[in-house]
Amino acid sequence: EAPSRTITGYAILFNVPSAPLWSDEDSEARAMIAPEAVTKEFLDAQDIKMTMFHDNHSLLARSNKGDGTLSYTVDDKGVMFEFSAPNTVDGDKALELVRRGDISGCSFAFTTRYFDSDFVERQSKVAANDVNNITYRVKAITGIYDFTLAANPYYPDTSVEVRELTKELKREQAPAAVITEDKEKALKQLREMRHAAQRSMFNV
């Protein structure tokens, strides 16, 4: 009997802190996805690509408006996915890396409105070492674009835009009215942050 080519895991975990968005001597910030941010109905309205490393050229499965080769369910824990690895170079590579444990994390790419408190709630708590621990609790999402197999889930891309986002978020939440159109455009890519799932979330 041929070995299974089915890969399952959690692309999104609810109420689980992400890897740090930034961490320095003064503050550390993480994101957390609230259960109300993602519903089955919302997912069924998206075009979601299953990839490796957020690379659309490494396409493994797809759900377009709820139909396709990628399936998912929403439970109290988060969003679980399942797909059969395609008989392609990338499909074989994904299977081998997951079976070996070289890939054991998962992420998803999404957009939200970080400066709108209806979408993202900023929570802050000063620890015993005087470091300000900030949590951005994402209550609403505007779009989901991929689920991905990731070696290092939820570390923002190292780019000028990411540094700009960090600078803005480390300041006090700015009212939406003071966010200029240019700044909004500059930060757009940064809102496509990748939320980390826990390690060892796969079954093959």
Structure description:
This protein has 204 residues and is α+β, with helices and mostly antiparallel strands. The chain has 4 helices and 12 strands, in the order βββαβββββαββββαα. The chain has helices at residues 40-43, 89-100, 160-170, 181-187, and strands at residues 6-13, 22-23, 27-33, 47-52, 55-64, 67-68, 71-74, 78-84, 105-111, 120-126, 132-138, 143-150. The strands form 3 sheets. The protein has a 5-stranded mixed β-sheet. A hairpin with a 2-residue loop joins strand 4 and strand 5 (55-64). The longest helix has 12 residues, at 89-100. The two termini are 15 Å apart. Mean pLDDT is 78; it is low at 155-165, 172-183 and 185-201.
In short:
The protein has 204 residues and is of the alpha+beta class. It is 17% helix and 37% strand.
Helix content: 10-25%
- Mean pLDDT, rounded to whole units? 78
Q: How many strands, what sense, and barrel or not for the largest sheet?
A: 5 strands, mixed
In terms of structural class, how would the helical and strand content be classed?
Answer: alpha+beta
Proportion of beta-strand residues: 35-45%
Number of helical regions: 4
Rounded to the nearest angstrom, the radius of gyration is: 18 Å
N-end to C-end Cα span: 15 Å
Instruction: Tell me the series of helices and strands, N- to C-terminal.
Output: EEEHEEEEEHEEEEHH
Secondary structure: number of strands: 12
Tell me, briefly, the overall form. Answer: globular
User: Order of strands in the sheet with the most strands?
Assistant: 6-5-4-12-9
Uncertain spans, ≥5 residues at pLDDT below 50?
Answer: 155-165, 172-183, 185-201
